[in-house]
Amino acid sequence: MKGERRGVKGLPNVRRSTIFFIFIMISILLFASLLLHARQSRIRSKATLTANAEMVGRLMLTDLCLFTEARYTRHPSMADLHSPFQDHPFAMDHFPSGSLVSPPRFHRETP
Amino acid sequence: MNSSLERHRNIVDFALSSLLRRKGKNISLLAVYTLIVFVIASIIFFIQALKREASLVLKDAPDIVVQRLVAGRHDLIPVVYGDKIASIRGVSRVRPRLWGYYYDAAVGANYTLMVTDNQPPAEESIIIGSGVARTRRLAEGDLMTFRDSSGSPVLLTVEKILPAASELVAADLIIMADKDFRGMFTFPRDRATDLALTVANPREITTIAAKIAQRLPDTRPILKSEILRTYDSVFDWRGGMLIVMLSVAVLSFIIFAWDKATGLSAEERKEIGILKSIGWETADVLLLKFWEGTAISLSAFLVGVILAYCHVFFFSASLFEQALKGWAVLYPRFRLTPVIDPYQLAVLFFLTVIPYTVTTIIPSWRAATVDPDAAMRS
């Protein structure tokens, strides 16, 4: 059984399988370099994370500043459990970020 | 060994030629497949990095925050509650927190106003987060106008702008002096927004919280572990927008797999029939289809994952920005520290590459086991 040895445009003597394997190898190498980048970034960002954690401790912060549109998504851990239904019990959430933040899971059931 | 390798290379050559013969169909298939992997991998990278960042940054959050609730709503807490709580054995420090929100009608942004007793700004001065500075185009030394509870203007000088690297925790923060905060909102002197507690022994936190709830029934203690768990459940897969995105991606993938699994085109059947009639074994045909499936799915997986990494960690997940921003005017600009969870990537690999490859092989196996003559005629 002979495979098609026909090359590709511009590279008449290179087999398609060779180009495919080179592409896969380059992709794997690129992926491996991203793993390395992730590791290096974690080392580099240590100082920033420590400074942010120190700021959280100093200012007694409780939440990340991810969504500033509603108080129960700006400080989800501080929100009372009625917040999303503040207008009436069947009220739809006004804010898109409300669909990204789940209700806080507390140890106790009382709101 | 070499002949086996050469056999595989010949089959890969043939598989690639076969894919290129249906160039339009296969390129569009590869593009959509890559897009699905890209979307799912972007979500995985973003959520993992955010959860890791939350757990590292919020580890120094107060051990317990005590809120007062009135009719199910957060209310100001009397400062004397702090003395009652401080008398509970194990509580080493109680600090009242003064904070609230301010809606800036000029730009339509919401800010978090806060008072600190640790390196506070001078009176009539403020320290602002870089998100506030960006939104209001402020620099150090500029004046920022607020309206107090009576509607009168209050002018405060920007003493300092917090570093841009702190945007994930402080983009919308305005730190002000106790006197300015209380004056602006006519905030009673004997009240605080809530109380932050430090507990000497972390193992006693739950017991202390139970004692607080028992002694002060109108309060709600929030533990540090609950704060951290809140960010564990943020972007939960059951969340509205995420389930929509994930179901679209998964449904598209099921449509692909279904299209492949339900049968081959007449042209593909004919091709298998011809290959069988010129001496190809069923195993060779299956190997050919395996390599066709692998070429598409492996390329889509690798390219999709690499693009997702670049999107989330080099371009700050800019495609998700509109969804995350919502109606907010002030949006924090932060670059997450990359995290790659091998387990989740392996799950993504097994959920995308393996099913697709298998679904390309099964109909080919059915076609390859029939008589070549019948396959060609069909």
Structure explained in plain terms:
The complex is a heterodimer of chains A (111) and B (378). By secondary structure, chain A is mostly helical. Chain A folds into two domains: 42 residues; 38 residues, no CATH class. In chain A, 42% of the residues lie in helices and 0% in strands. The mean pLDDT of chain A is 78. Chain B has 378 residues and is an alpha+beta fold. Chain B folds into two domains: 200 residues, no CATH class; 116 residues, Barwin-like endoglucanases (Beta Barrel). In chain B, the strands form two sheets. In chain B, strands 1, 2, 4, 5, 6, 7, 8, 9, 11 and 12 form a ten-stranded mixed beta sheet that branches. Chain B has a two-stranded antiparallel sheet with strand order 3-10. In chain B, a hairpin with a 2-residue loop joins strand 1 and strand 2. In chain B, helix 1 packs across helix 11, helix 2 runs antiparallel to helix 9 and helix 2 runs antiparallel to helix 13. The longest helix of chain B is centred in the N-terminal third of the chain and has 35 residues. Chain B starts with a helix and ends with a helix. The mean pLDDT of chain B is 87. The interface between A and B is large, with 72 and 99 residues.
